[in-house]
Specification:
The chain has 11 helices and 8 strands. It is α/β, with parallel strands linked by helices. The two termini are 37 Å apart. The structure holds uridine-5'-diphosphate and magnesium ion.
Length: 324
Amino acid sequence: MDELSEENKIAKPLFDGLLSVVVPCRDEEEMLPIFKAEFLKAMSEMGNPKFELIFVEDGSSDGTLEILRKMSADDKRVRFISFSRNFGKEAAMYAGLKAARGDFATVMDADLQDPPSLLPEMFDALINGGFDSVAARRKTRDGEPPARTFCAKWFYKILNALSPLKFTEGARDYRLMTRRVLDAVLELPEYNRFTKGIYEWIGFKTKWIEYDNVERPAGSTKWSFFGLAVYSLDALTSFSTIPLAVAAVVGILFCILSSIAIVLLSIRQLIFHNSAYGWTSMICVIFFLSGLQLFCLGMLGQYMSKIYLETKRRPHFIVREKSE
Ligand code: UDP
Ligand code: MG
């Protein structure tokens, strides 16, 4: 960063080629003008390179679409895709990345929680550092409810223990990538998308950049606690089949244990003839085992529902309106 002296910043674009920036937005009317101003500031600090902003309007119920229509009419570098209903951030990112024409691409939240000011450092690593992609990671989660931070920590612990891929805590969808990496991301057309997992799965040389959490300047989060919990389970089952194996192993273990118990209990019954004895422990075991069985069934159901959805081959999203 030091080598970017004041005059270099303005004299010449920081990179050659086109940068595509995908911005998923749902109910972001308050944020859009702030976002665009902040983004343009970052671009001018980078010597005004060529870029396209691809806003993906994901079934908003406020004035987001009107603002996007106007923005793209006023500025040819702004494009938008508008969905017929809310398809979720994952679908929005996929739509935007598919539409990207750039030599470089990135995904940014509309709420500026993925600061555009990191771009110069990211480009430096991509162009001079020989990296294929540069990923952003939040070091802190200041300003977030403590319960959410706690669950997120545990989610990453469990995910990493149960998945062959290594997931980084605090990783964002915000990542600058070359065309080659973008094409690789698009080669995974699965319906149940978990982009952070896809990034890990495709590999490539990736540099991590850390930054302090930024709070949303306007608007509010679109994620409920329950929504995040379902998303976490999706993430786990999308990139790991280990939970299935765990269920099987635990099942076998309990079969062995119960066989031993059956033998021991039968012997006791033959010797002492006191069958009413041990009712409490019996109930406990029944409760525990039924719980375990339901859990394993639920796990199986998770995978089955994935198969079900994938085999339908439904589109990820339906476009209602586009800028071009
Ligand atoms: N978003 C979206 N579709 C959704 C939910 C969210 O496109 O169904 C967008 C949202 O407009 C924002 C980004 O995804 O640009 C991140 O959402 P949010 O800030 O609500 O999530 P958080 O930062 O709280 O995890
Ligand atoms: Mg946010």
